[in-house]
Amino acid sequence: MANNKMNNLIEEINQKLSTTVPESSLNTNIEESMRYSLEAGGKRIRPVLLLLTLDMLSNEYKSGLSSALGLEIVHTYSLIHDDLPPLDNDDYRRGKPTNHKVFGEWKAILAGDALLTKAFEIITNDTSLTDTVKIKLVKRLSYASGHLGMVGGQALDMQSEGSSIDLNTLEKIHKAKTGELLKFAVMAAVDIAEPEQAVADLLETYSEHLGLMFQIKDDLLDIYGDETKLGKAVGSDIENDKSTYVSLLGQTGAEEKLKFHADAAYQCLNELPESYNTQDLESIIELFNNRES
């Protein structure tokens, strides 16, 4: 049931994403570059997580659609920029040539910039949300994607390449780089549904464990993942001399760390009031734990 629900949400998200970047009168063709990455596929796990959390809290996920779209658009912009030569210098993303390989570097940079600002346009144009809620969402997404969140984590990650870092620094990188957008997914639903504070606190902790799970699994997949399923080459972390959970803890240690955060995430859900059906959020933990891409 959970998988069917996720698939239906992904279909709805993809349909709405396909209409977010219409042609403009400027004749710059930048929209084609934006849509190329936006419609390149992907698991859509962040918007799905937002909608499933909101559904659990309020039984009404549609009020979170604009936030879900904005979140996925921010994530997409970050991938375009991450793939550029000064950063990860990747030729393929999701099994297709990266944006800058198709459209050139300058257009890829501007397409990413345009997507970032489009995300906030979509949220603020949502007439189903109160202005107070929209301000909360914009503030939260600004933090999650900015210099104290995703961008800051990426900066610390780049700064740390080629040097030896400890586990605390590695977790600091990934709590910001990967974890903040996943936290936004859960906490945006909290902003919209406004549950009691104890519920909000448990869900925030749940989201933090999810963020670390996601990155630990990424590091493990870079060792033993299937390139055809990942849509990109494995072994890039070793090639780029990056510190990872595997390089610091070994494969067994990284797998133990993954299990620790999975167990902690389940515990957060177990402590929620019995009135909440946590099945869908439990399935997200399982998905993070078992994913192959």
Note down, in words, how this protein is organized:
It contains 14 helices and two strands; from the N terminus they run ααααββαααααααααα. Helix content is 71%, strand content 1%. It has helices at residues 2-17, 30-38, 45-58, 65-82, 99-103, 105-124, 131-145, 150-160, 167-193, 197-224, 227-230, 236-239, 245-270, 279-290, and strands spanning 92-93, 96-97. The longest helix is centred in the last third of the chain and has 28 residues, at 197-224. A two-stranded antiparallel sheet has the order 1-2. The two termini are 22 Å apart. The protein has 293 residues and is an all-alpha fold. It is globular. The mean pLDDT is 92.
